[in-house]
Structures are given as C-alpha cells and as structure tokens.
Design a protein that fits this description.
Layout lengths: L1 H11 L8 E8 L6 H21 L6 E3 L2 E3 L4 H13 L4 E3 L3 H14 L3 E2 L6 H5 L5 E3 L2 H15 L7 E6 L3 H4 L2 H9 L5 E7 L7 H9 L4 E5 L2 H13 L14 E5 L5 H7 L7 E4 L9 H12 L4 H4 L2 H22 L6 H9 L24 E3 L2 E7 L2 E9 L6
Parallel strand pairs: 1-2, 1-3, 1-4, 4-5, 6-12, 7-8, 7-9, 9-10, 10-11
Antiparallel strand pairs: 11-13, 13-14
Helix pairs in contact: 2-14, 3-4, 6-8, 10-11, 14-15
C-alpha cells in the first residue's frame, strides 16, 4: 500500500505535458493556372505562421500548417484535404472556387471550418463551414459596375464587356452582375469573353471596339489582364482617363490587379480601375509597415512583399490564428467545433481588425463574408491609388 501511495505521489509531480501544437493545413495552386496569385498567397500564410510561432502570439502553443501544391486540380485538393484530416487538422485553409464547391459536402460531413482564397459567393451557400475573408467576387465586380454606371459621362447606357477566367472562379460574378442590371443598374453587357492562353488579343480588342464597347470588366488573374492591357496600349485603344470617348477603360476585381499587375503590365496598367478588400502598400500607412516588415523579416523579394496576394494569405492565416487565440482565452479546447463557434461570434464588439483589410472581419451564423466593404483603386503614375472611401455595393445583398 505504501509503495502505491508513493508511486502515486511521484506521478503527480511529473512535469506537465509540452505545450500544444495545433494542426492546420493549406492546399493551393503554387504552380499551374492562377499560380501568379497562389504563389505569393502561400508565402503569406507561411510567413504569418512562422511569425506566430516565433513571437509567441499563442503563448506557449504553436501552429503547424503544412502547405501543399494542388496545381489548381480539384482531385489533388481532395487528396490533400483527406491527408490533412488524417493529421487531425482543426481548420482547413483552401483555395480554388471549383475545389471548394466540390468539397463543400465533405466540409459539411466533417464539420470543419474552412477559410478559402476564393471569394465566390456560392461557397457560403454550399457550406455553413466556409468563411470568406473579404467581400465576394460578385460584390467586387458589381462594385466596379456601379462605378461605371454612376460616373459614365458619354451619354446613353454604357456598353460593357466581361473578360473572365475560363473556370468557376471566372464565371462566379456574372449572374449577380446580370441580376444587378435587372434590378436597375444601367449597363449594357455586350459580350462575355472567356479568355484562353492567347499571347495576342488584337482581334478580340478590335471586335469589342467595333461593337462600341467602352468598358471591359475583368474577373481573372493578373497575367491575362497584363497581356490584354499591353495589346490595348499597342493598338492605341486604352483610355487615358476614365470613360474617355472612343477608347476602352479597363477595370477588374481582386485577383486581376494589385502591384503584381503593374510589375507585369508596366505603363499599360495606367488607368486600370480595380476593387479589393485589402489595402495596398503603394499607399503608406500602418498596414503597409506591418506587411513590409514581415516580408523583410523573412527575406521576401520586393514583388512578393508588395503583393496584395501575399497580404491575402497573411490575413487568412491571421483569422485562423485569431480564432484559436480567442478560443484558448475562453478556456476552450481547440477543436473544429470550438473554432467554428468562435468564428461565428466574430462580430459586433468582437469583430476582428486585420492590419491589411479595409474594414473589420465579421462573421455570424447568417453572415460568413468577412470584410463587407470594398475599396476602388486606380493606377496613377505607376501606382495604385484609392478612389474615394471603402463602400458597400448597392445592387447586391
């Protein structure tokens, strides 16, 4: 009996277990289609997770977030997700619109919170476990369309063409755009172009101009937009000012723009109008200092450091870590269920202010679109500059 008591006493003095490590996972297109967005996005996630562990943002706890390239292929994303589940992840960082649509039922069955790089509005309908970081593609696209309708000075109904990625990601905003027009937004959609890998858009641009198109609204990534802008400049079609008569004004949403576009298009990017939910480093402020300091800490090149896609990845990681931090602070065990509940309470006085976003991140059981406002920018003298203040588009809920 004495031995047992002594043994029990000794057991009670054994040091506590090592600090916990919380398992996350990221699957995205580091290579393949849309990799010009996915590559800096992955670096943003990687660097923020390193910062968390090195600066004890979670106290003595750590995060482990392996990053896997899915090459923009849904089947690969699914395999990555299943492997991550075997590693007992508590939250999944995902990427593509199509892959998230395909995996939505898997998310529902597992009941795991998901923060995607895609801002397709359909995702929050497909699964209550998907939390968009910022306003949807539809909100951003309708936002630039509203700007056209309100600011067009040429008389008559503005003629618009859509230049989109040949995927679910590219097609995402079109129905909402058409619904906005049906609700009273005065625009004439002349043509929808799903671009290929063409290196010369001369014939396309000449066709659009022959149809009287005055504005081209883009929903794709930077590379095809840069090609389009360079061709328009070479042909003398680019508007030097918004809505210039006889010219074409080019505009776009989120993944079409940013400093990455200027690096690709150079002077051809002048006058390009663009919406996103993020600040840009070409406008100085605490957001730029924060982003650039982290990039410098991890020896990133200037292109990556100034990319809004880099900021995008950092914010997705930041929201995930903030949910973990809040759940820990509340004394909860870190599980898929507690993180889901914590994210749904991120509103009101519990809204989360990310340094890189133009508004607070808010979620609830009825609202899983994080930053509700968008900011319009335009390229002036080789840099994106804000046009007005962040706003909520009127013709979309």
């Amino acid at each position: 009996m004495i031995v047992v008591v002594v043994g029990l006493a000794l057991a009670l003095t054994v040091p506590a277990q090592a600090a916990e490590t919380y398992q996350l996972g990221l699957s995205l297109a580091i290579t393949g289609p849309t990799s010009d967005a996915g590559n800096p996005y992955s670096k943003g996630v990687e660097d923020y997770m390193r910062l968390v562990n090195e600066t004890n943002i979670l106290g003595d706890a750590k995060v482990d977030c392996p990053i896997r390239d899915d090459m923009y292929e849904t089947a690969v994303t699914k395999r990555n997700f299943e492997d991550f589940l075997d590693q007992e992840i508590v939250l999944f960082l995902s990427y593509a619109t199509g892959a998230n649509q395909a995996l939505a039922q898997d998310f529902n069955e597992v009941k795991i919170p998901v923060i995607p790089a895609s801002m397709d509005k359909s995702l929050v309908v497909a699964s209550p476990y998907i939390f968009l970081p910022i306003a949807s593609y539809s909100h951003q696209y309708v936002g630039v369309a509203e700007y056209v309708a309100k600011n067009h000075k040429g008389g008559g109904v503005p003629k618009v063409a859509a230049f989109i990625h040949p995927s679910a990601f590219g097609r995402a905003p079109l129905e909402d755009y058409k619904a906005a027009v049906a609700s009273g937004l005065k625009l004439d959609l002349v043509e929808v172009v799903e671009h290929g890998k063409d290196l010369d858009n001369s014939a396309l641009l000449q066709r659009l101009q022959s149809k009287g198109v005055q504005y081209v609204l883009c929903q794709t990534v930077q590379s095809p937009v840069a090609t389009l802008l360079n061709d328009a400049q070479r042909l003398g079609m680019s508007a030097k000012t918004f809505g210039e008569a006889g010219k074409i004004t080019f505009m776009g949403a989120h993944y079409t723009g940013g400093n990455d576009l200027i690096a690709l298009a150079g002077t051809a990017a002048e006058g390009f109008h663009w919406t996103t939910g993020y600040h840009v480093t070409s406008e100085k402020g605490p957001w730029a200092d924060w982003q650039l300091d982290i990039a410098k800490r991890y020896d990133r090149d200037d292109k990556t450091a100034n990319s809004h896609n880099y900021a995008c990845g950092m914010m997705a990681a930041q929201v995930a870590v903030e949910a973990i931090r809040r759940a820990r602070e509340a004394g909860k065990e870190i599980t898929q269920a507690t993180l889901y509940d914590t994210l749904n309470q991120m509103n009101g006085d519990k809204a989360f202010a990310s340094q890189v976003a133009v508004g607070p991140v808010t979620y609830s059981t009825t609202d899983r679109m994080g930053v509700d406002t968008v900011q319009l920018y335009v390229v002036k003298d080789g840099a994106f500059k804000s046009v007005g203040k962040p706003f909520k588009p009127e013709f979309i809920e």
